[in-house]
Specification:
about 425 residues, alpha+beta, Rossmann fold, Dna Ligase, domain 1, Aldehyde Oxidoreductase, domain 3, four-stranded antiparallel beta sheet, about 30% helix, globular
Length: about 425
């Protein structure tokens, strides 16, 4: 039986989907996680279940002490564990991407520098160190600009600024977000880059021997112009003409080669305008959240099964389109910060023609926030349809039937202010 060391983030959306895929394939999973190192012993968990994913060198030492048998592969479920997975693969002599390549694409500054050096289309950008003041727009840039934390994902710590006052606010806010979320925030600093106009698209693919296979190209029908960049709709197949689709594939493949990525899943975000294709980012992992469930329809199997098959060296089945000709997913947006208390209209949303599933991933009583502070969603709506336009309409119609109940974090009591 093949064995995979699987890095499961404690708050990950897809842990159960990967574990279910492993059971279907007969793959043994050795689970590792990043639960609190103080609480894990109280819960009776082994040290391997309390790995500091953000301190991969320390985590590697723990894994090497705890592992009793060599795995056939190491996989990370999401972005938080990809560097650790690469480091473990190198130490254990297993195939995979080199650590330097994974670090390069995770770091927005390093990736911009790579694009610049290899003559890709890229926005003008500047690095702002942690203690550096920004009294005005850095030289070489023009408004509008986007201020970005260097290693956060899911639109966290990304803010557009259209003038100097907005820039000062954005820098302060992004720094505060990064300080809370990244252990190395003070050493990293932030990135300021010119805003790229155009529509966004997402490419989901996989690398084998450095060759890119495109599994899907998603339209993002909602304009992502800021000031914040919360993603909502993904619809495939893309309605772009064939020529720009081919250009996206070629540019993503070229960027993967430039970065040194050679194997495993790839998720790329791009913008397209009259000047061509602009790569925003490439991640050495698969699509986030529960969005991967759309591939049950697109591939005739789950994306997690495909990733596990490739990791252990098994043959990959040819993608098989089943059912309707188009598919889509909505990451249900969070309308405002507060305490989630529930929703109405679930059955009405599920009854929209074409809707195949609606999963809420937020718990009652949970504090939630949209980007740029938040990095989660209320849930996910899935659909199949005869065309991309019909898929988009179905997702919007289902979302319109939901009524989300969110209350303030600190509601005033009726007696507040009285003696």
């Amino acid at each position: 039986m093949k064995r995979v060391l699987l890095l499961l983030p404690a708050s990950g959306y897809r842990n159960d989907d990967f574990l279910a895929a492993a059971r279907r394939l007969g793959v043994e999973i050795v689970a590792a996680a990043n639960y609190c190192r103080r609480l894990a012993p109280v819960w009776g968990l082994a040290p391997i279940m309390a790995l500091p994913f953000d301190r991969p060198r320390a985590a590697v030492a723990t894994v090497l002490c705890e592992m009793t048998a060599l795995p056939d592969a190491v996989l990370a479920v999401d972005d938080s564990g990809v560097e650790l997975a690469a480091m473990l693969s190198e130490r254990l002599g297993l195939p995979g991407n080199r650590v330097e390549a994974v670090r390069r694409v995770r770091d927005k500054l390093a990736f911009r520098q790579l694009l610049q050096a290899r003559e890709f289309s890229h926005p003008a950008f500047q690095h702002l160190s942690y203690g550096e003041d920004v009294g005005e727009l850095p030289a070489g840039l023009k408004f509008p600009v986007v201020v970005k934390a260097r290693r956060l994902s899911a639109s966290r710590g990304v803010i557009r600024a259209d003038d100097t006052r907005a820039l000062l606010r954005a820098v302060r806010r992004v720094r505060a977000i990064q300080l809370r979320a990244d252990r190395d925030a003070a050493q990293l600093g932030i990135v300021i880059e010119e805003f790229i106009p155009g529509r966004e698209y997402a490419l989901e693919g996989s690398l084998r021997g450095g060759e890119l296979t495109v599994l899907a190209l998603f339209d993002k029908p909602d304009p992502l112009d800021g000031p914040f960049f919360e993603e909502t709709l993904y619809v495939t197949p893309s309605r772009l003409p064939r020529a720009p689709q081919d250009e996206i594939r070629q540019e993503v493949a070229r960027a993967c080669r430039a970065a040194g990525l050679v194997s495993g899943p790839v998720h790329a975000e791009v913008r397209v305008n009259e000047q061509g294709v602009w790569i925003l980012e490439i991640a050495a992992r698969s699509i986030g959240g529960l969005c991967a469930r759309v591939f049950d329809h697109l591939l005739g199997t789950s994306l997690e099964e495909r990733i596990l098959r490739q990791a252990v060296g098994e043959a990959l089945p040819a993608p098989t389109l089943t059912g309707g000709a188009a598919a889509g997913v909505m990451m249900i947006p969070i309308p405002r910060r507060g305490i989630y208390r529930g929703l109405e209209g679930l059955e009405a949303a599920q009854s929209v023609p074409g809707i195949t599933g609606l999963t809420m991933t937020v718990a009652r009583g949970q504090l939630i926030a949209p980007p740029p502070e938040g990095a989660s969603y209320l849930g996910f709506i899935f659909c199949r349809a005869a065309s991309p336009a019909e898929a988009e309409r179905a997702l919007r119609a289902a979302h319109a039937r939901l009524r989300i109940d969110i209350v303030s974090e600190h509601p005033l009591s009726p007696a507040a202010g009285t003696a």
